[in-house]
Amino acid sequence: MSRLSILCICFAVLAAGPGRVQAAAPLSDATQECLDCHASVTLGIVADWRSGRHAAMSVAQSLGGDNAVRRITAGEVPEKLRGVAVGCAECHTLRPDRHADTFEHNGHRVHVVVSPRDCAVCHTEEASQYAENLMSRAYGNLKDNPLYAKLQVSIIGDTGEKDGRITFAPADARTRAVGCYYCHGTRLAFKGLETRETDVGDLAFPVIDGWPSQGVGRVNLDGSLGACTACHGRHSFSIEMARKPGTCKQCHVGPDVPAYRVYAASKHAGIYESLGAHWNFQAVPWTVGRDFKAPTCAVCHASQLVGEDGELLVERTHRMNDRLPKRLYGLIYTHAHPRSPDTSIIRNADGQPLPTTLDGRPAEAFLIDQKEQGRRLKNMQAVCRGCHSTTWVRGHWARLDRTVAVTDAAVKQATGIMQRIWRAGYARGPAEGGNPFDENIERTWTELWLFYANSTRFAAAMAGGGDYGVFAEGRFNLSQNMVELAEWLQQQEKLEGKASKEKSAE
Ligand code: HEC
Ligand code: HEC
Ligand code: HEC
Ligand code: HEC
Ligand code: HEC
Ligand code: HEC
Ligand code: HEC
Ligand code: HEC
């Protein structure tokens, strides 16, 4: 055995444990060439890559290590990738014929957009689970749903005016990319090559429409969906980042999707904020109570958790609905979780592309059944039981179930008022071919179910601080909008009554 390989094994053993990672795996010749230039051309990228596990370890070293830690889930990794560190060339020259953006770059066929299918060459399981996640479909779930297109245009569309009324025209691609598709992800398109002057002379680079984007449902140039970098920022691709809540905050913080705000105001986050600096966010497997003492988003939704003696509490999942029986995000009511991550196929009993009808009947054929809901609830509760008693957990869900029932009932009442407004012709609703989201009174109704009912439910589900269920876009605002809807309708009816009295008096 050469001295080099002994050294490598020593480092591999060191690196397999938690703590800082040392660069030790041999580099391929191609990656060495990339580094020779890129250490000065894009120094931040190179330094960041060096700090991660891809620089520290080859596939062979990883597989040779502790088998309880299976970061490589591919059955078979191509021979030439096995013995070297996962360097620039290993990712950016993988599957060159599959990428529309592959270009000749200093003697190598490089592509810029490294996709989930590239990662799948080594991380097969994570990539295939992720494809079952709503996130991977977030682009089409928005774009291919005609009703959501109306919601979209009423928010990010270009405003105009006709007969004194505000009109909305579809937004351009650049606005969409910083609007709804910033989180949902853009569609990438290869537009040809462009030659630019660089520090090392003239070089050609691909022009890619829709890029940059790290949206969770991005449509890639090899046809794959999503961006693993949404949670594993390049180029350290660390597990630690994905386990910390700030990573999810980027997209889960709005008044419509307030998971982060609710979490940030919870007792759990209070403990994380005070003591989290002492926890171990790199350990695999991750031991409840020893490595961390209160949950982050990842703990409840994704992580593999074990107890002190190594027994499995719950398996890791990148299909982040494995622990979600219900969809609390009302469309427009809560409902059992959709069966398929592609929600654009859903049609309710009234033929609308929604999982519930406007009066609350679920589109059952497209939603998971009771048995599957029970399985997922058990998964989530297994997480809680790592730290809480059964009585505590039951008490929590009794309140959540009640909150779901109460908020759904409120949405039903508000929608009943909205339908009376549409029927009376005080606003142009879906029956008249109008956009149900664009007029002021329609926005009052939209806020009620999209912001306030959601916030109230999220606070109850994620043990959030009291405010998000009450005064901070919770029950207070919900009741306020309910009163506004009812009084506005009454006022219109009065005005109409007055007008018709005047008419008959003439
Ligand atoms: C002779 C020097 C040189 C070598 C060798 C080299 N690169 Fe580059 N690379 C550059 C320069 C210069 C740029 C442009 C940087 C900029 O746009 O500021 C670049 C840009 C890139 C980009 C970004 C392209 C874009 O349009 O955003 C990628 C990806 C890339 N290189 C990957 C690689 C990989 C992988 C290797 C090794 C297989 C490699 N490079 C080898 C000099 C080099
Ligand atoms: C584990 C796979 C992987 C490795 C290893 C890797 N990259 Fe990347 N690289 C990516 C991904 C993923 C992206 C994000 C592209 C996108 O989807 O937008 C990226 C993007 C880039 C970009 C364009 C992004 C920007 O901010 O300009 C450059 C340049 C680049 N990589 C250079 C390198 C260099 C140099 C190395 C070696 C030090 C390297 N990469 C190693 C996966 C990898
Ligand atoms: C050629 C194989 C290969 C490819 C391609 C690859 N990886 Fe890895 N990945 C590895 C190896 C080897 C490790 C380290 C394994 C270990 O620690 O035992 C690793 C570890 C990881 C980790 C865990 C890091 C940590 O801090 O614990 C993440 C996350 C990850 N990779 C994400 C990605 C993503 C995202 C891509 C695609 C952009 C990708 N990988 C592409 C081989 C690969
Ligand atoms: C800041 C990130 C972000 C932006 C920007 C964003 N969304 Fe979303 N969207 C989300 C998240 C997160 C969810 C998932 C909510 C949940 O399940 O809790 C989501 C889910 C949705 C859904 C449900 C889709 C389905 O069928 O699964 C719709 C509809 C939607 N968003 C509409 C929009 C519209 C319209 C816009 C632009 C006006 C927009 N979103 C902008 C983050 C975002
Ligand atoms: C770049 C934006 C982005 C980031 C970062 C992000 N999400 Fe999401 N997430 C979304 C969007 C958009 C959706 C909704 C997709 C849809 O409904 O079509 C979503 C949906 C989800 C869902 C519902 C999945 C399902 O299949 O039902 C869960 C759970 C979730 N996210 C958890 C997380 C967690 C935990 C993190 C951090 C570790 C995170 N997300 C980071 C954008 C993001
Ligand atoms: C929505 C956020 C999110 C996205 C997107 C995401 N991951 Fe992860 N990933 C996580 C979390 C959270 C963990 C930590 C799981 C744990 O603690 O067990 C993780 C862990 C990992 C690991 C380490 C597993 C191990 O054995 O230690 C790998 C490898 C990985 N992810 C690959 C990927 C790949 C490949 C993709 C794209 C297909 C991807 N991830 C997309 C959140 C995400
Ligand atoms: C204490 C555990 C816990 C923590 C911590 C937690 N969640 Fe949740 N989350 C839940 C539960 C429980 C549900 C509701 C499950 C159900 O009824 O299907 C949920 C639901 C969700 C949903 C789905 C909403 C929907 O439309 O159904 C998203 C998205 C989500 N959480 C994201 C996050 C993010 C992002 C964080 C961190 C900022 C986070 N969660 C922190 C337990 C947690
Ligand atoms: C890693 C341990 C851990 C996990 C996992 C965990 N919790 Fe907690 N939780 C705690 C700790 C510690 C507290 C604070 C107890 C105290 O000091 O009052 C807490 C507090 C709470 C509170 C009380 C909030 C308050 O302000 O009164 C609720 C409710 C709660 N957890 C629900 C859950 C639910 C539901 C789950 C699973 C979805 C869960 N927890 C998972 C550790 C955990």
Please tell me about this protein's structure:
With about 500 residues, the chain is mainly α. The chain has 3 domains: about 1-90, no CATH class; about 115-235, no CATH class; about 240-245 and about 255-495, Hydroxylamine Oxidoreductase, Chain A, domain 2 (Up-down Bundle), CATH 1.20.850. The protein is about 45% helix and about 10% strand. The chain is built from 22 helices and 11 strands. The strands form 5 sheets. A 3-stranded mixed beta sheet has the order 7-8-9. Helix 20 (about 390-425) packs parallel to helix 22.
Average pLDDT score: 94
Q: How is the main sheet built?
A: 3 strands, mixed
- Main sheet: strand order: 7-8-9
Strand coverage percent: 5-15%
Poorly predicted sequence stretches spanning 5 or more consecutive residues: 1-21
- The number of helical segments is 22
Return the structural class.
Answer: mainly alpha
CATH topology of the largest domain: Hydroxylamine Oxidoreductase, Chain A, domain 2
Number of domains: 3
The CATH class of the largest domain turns out to be: Mainly Alpha
